[in-house]
Amino acid sequence: MHWIYLSPHLDDVALSCGGLIWEQAQAGNSAEIWTVCAGDPPPGPLSPFAESLLARWQTGLAASALRRQEDLLACRAIGASAVHFPVPDCIYRAGSSASNHWYASEQAIFGDLHPEEAHLVDSLSQEIASRLPVGASLVAPLALGGHVDHRLVRQVVERLESHHRLLFWFYADYPYVLRAAAELSTVTNGFQRTIFPISPAGLSAWEAAIAAHASQVSTFWPDLAAMQAAIQAYCLQAGGIPLWQNQNPNRA
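Above: the chain sequence. Below: its structure as tokens.
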């Protein structure tokens, strides 16, 4: 089988599905991680919020290029190939005035897609549809937690579901899923859940893929040991990695 995983950011699929992709590769399947928001920042100043994130990541203005390199290492750890789309992370995106940043706070990045970006849903759905291999399984985020870039990818996939007869799966956005039990129940109503077991070797590969995103570890954990403990606990509690399928997609 050919699996295509859609990742809002360069670490989301590694965080949510890394062990599963390793297991699929070991079984002889091929997997690609297509990261939507992997582009460089546009010219112009960054918002103070974006600058604070770059300082925490200790990347400076080379953040996007460095993170793409981290993604290549992560994909290598789990046996996937990488595709990077040119859309910048939401923290960089702005209006016609480069100083008019649309997502310049923690609150904003967990809000709605800015109206001036509505065109992204159409353009991305068309581009992804044109690049999908025949017979591939497409795996996308449920958009738990409401991050605007996760919502963007989910809207793109809903557009694809309506017009393309593909096999769609959805993954729980880790670590947002840890705080979104009620939301998970709501958004997967009418979906069928399948649990994919993860072996000890798959768990180790999963941890290695997350560790490869070195600039991002501090976003969620104080150190690598804490990350490993958290992933092990999540995998044990879930019994592996769950994916969901919509039993009643609205197909045109």
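Residues 16 and 174 are 5 Å apart (CA to CA).
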